[in-house]
């Protein structure tokens, strides 16, 4: 028996996401001065804002520490940010306790082996198209997009559609402008 998108999406109240390999393409670029750069897809940012406008939370759990992540989180009003988390499961459990979530209310999107302990426990485990094989085998949903290429937006759109909320954000056409 297959579980429908609506059944999987119904209890979800928060999306927790890895950063490198999910919100970015996984590359870490460091220039000659030691300055690190990352690229984020603009559609992921809009998707996160729409998810929040729909009344849900979005959070980040990443093993690395990066000022760039702090800046992007601030820009998108992401209040749940856990950096330097070698044990992402523990970080997820701390978030559950702090915000009162149950595992079935959490969707987590990750791409590599450190994400598996979280993916095993949440209500909706999701991964990106170019994730590690073991992660793809664990996920309930696999995005068509690879990490850093709008995968988070794709996830959010699928969740909002399943919750019958996507149309709340799609502008309707205005009547044509009269040329008289």
Number of helices: 7
- The appropriate CATH architecture is 3-Layer(aba) Sandwich
Corresponding CATH superfamily = HAD superfamily/HAD-like
Helical proportion, percent range? 25-40%
Order of helices and strands: HEEEHEHEHEHEHEH
Q: Mean pLDDT across all residues, rounded?
A: 95
Output the radius of gyration: 17 Å
How many strands, what sense, and barrel or not for the largest sheet?
Answer: 6 strands, parallel
Biggest sheet: strands side by side, in what order? 5-4-1-6-7-8
Number of domains: 1
Computed structural class? alpha/beta
The end-to-end span amounts to 59 Å
The number of E-state strands comes to 8
Low-confidence stretches: none
Mind telling me the CATH class? Answer: Alpha Beta
Which topology does CATH recognise?
Rossmann fold
Strand content: 15-25%
